[in-house]
Design brief:
With 214 residues, the protein is mostly helical. The protein has one domain. Helix content is 77%, strand content 0%. The chain has 10 helices and no strands. α5 packs antiparallel against α10. The C terminus is likely disordered. Its main location: membrane. This is Amino acid efflux protein.
Length: 214
């Protein structure tokens, strides 16, 4: 059962979420690039997948897996190296197939299901979100709180409520600048390299991440 945190805790969490949401990450780069490449519906489908990934993280946190990961370097290593490998693959795809923010029609357009799956996958392996739920979210719940699971669940859903409207506006804005980007091939290629760089940087961050207390 969901449990609402105290007002001061909720205010601090809201501020922290605002900072996290506006910080660029692999999920943001992905749903914006899909919007530019295939339109708003594609961007929204990818965004829906990313938000669904947050639901998964919330459920795992509520069940205590966040505490397990924070306490078990071996378990955390499995996630961090798998996530790093996935992000490196995304960077490689961006450089090889111009996948960062490709605007030209793709040989085969991704279906809504595949767009959703790509958003879900990049979110589940996103180091920013993993570290957020593993090491940051539990800070807003006391270890001896009998309603800790409910509070974690509430905070996870609250984070989605904050992220959904702001990210939707990003998708709408990305679609509107598609014409300008199509007229600038050099800018598009630069964005591809930036996309690959972001993927690589987050992969490095994930590899070098450490559990609490290490």
């Amino acid at each position: 059962m969901l449990a609402v945190p105290a007002p001061d805790v909720l205010a601090a969490f809201t501020l922290a979420c605002g900072v996290l949401i506006v910080t660029p990450g692999p999920d943001m780069a992905l749903f914006l690039s899909r919007t530019v490449a295939q339109g708003r519906l594609a961007g929204l489908a990818t965004l829906a997948g990313a938000l669904s990934g947050i639901l998964v993280h919330s459920a795992l946190a509520a069940l205590g897996l966040s505490a397990l990961l924070a306490a078990s370097p071996a378990a955390f290593d499995v996630l961090k190296f798998a996530g790093a490998a996935y992000l490196v693959w995304l960077a490689f795809q961006a450089l090889r197939h111009r996948g960062g923010l490709t605007l030209e029609p793709a040989p085969a357009r991704l279906s809504t299901a595949r767009l959703y799956a790509s958003g879900l996958g990049v979110n589940l392996l996103n180091p920013k979100v993993i570290l957020f739920f593993v090491t940051f979210l539990p800070q807003f719940v006391a270890a001896d709180d009998p309603a800790a699971a409910g509070r974690l669940g509430f905070l996870g859903l609250y984070f989605i409520a904050l992220a959904a409207p702001s990210c939707t506006l990003m998708v709408l804005a990305a679609d509107r600048i598609a014409g300008w980007l199509r007229a600038s091939p050099a800018v598009m290629r630069t964005i591809d390299y930036l996309f690959a760089g972001v993927m690589g940087a987050f992969a490095l961050k994930l590899i070098t991440a450490r559990t609490v207390g290490s």
